[in-house]
Structures are given as C-alpha cells and as structure tokens.
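Chapter summary example.
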Amino acid sequence: MALPKKMTPLGDGVFLRQVPAGRMLCEHELVRGLLGEFLPHYPDAGRLLPLCRNIALLSLALCDEQGQELYTPQQVAALLPMEQIASLAALYRQQEEGEHA
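The structure predicted for these 101 residues follows.
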C-alpha cells in the first residue's frame, strides 16, 4: 500500500505526517494545556515553551499508516526522551521548509 503524500516512516508502524491545516488550530490549545500542567514541576521555565510546542506538534504529527493520531501530548511527553522530541520536531520543520522552498 502506498503511503499518503507527506508521511515519513519512523519504524514500528509510526509515521511523521504533515499536520492538516485544520488540526494545526489545536496546537495553541495543546500548548496552553501543557504549560499549565508542566509549569509547577519544571525547573527551567525559559525552555518550557519550546518544549511544549514540540510536544504539541508531535502529538498532532505522529500517526499510524492511515494517518490517525497515535499519542496525546501527555503520552508524547511520557514516552519520548526530550532529545528525541526535539529531533523529531526538527525533522518535521525541515520537511515543512522543504515543501515551501
């Protein structure tokens, strides 16, 4: 079966897809929720906003073969190390820039 356009296989049935425009509207709400959840427990508030943005982005971009979202933001934060969150978000942004170049 051919993959839908703009989906990168990451292995184990997980794909990184371009987030549909309608779903990107959810990113702001997800970031706000994550900030409220993590702020009391996070020592470096200056790095918290970029981290929350990356987590929110990945919760919308990580999907299965059919394009169904696999993880909530809380699951992304719990399952992936911070370095992997940052590198996957960077990969997503590189793909986006490549599309618009």
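To summarize the output: Residues 82-100 form the longest helix (19 residues).
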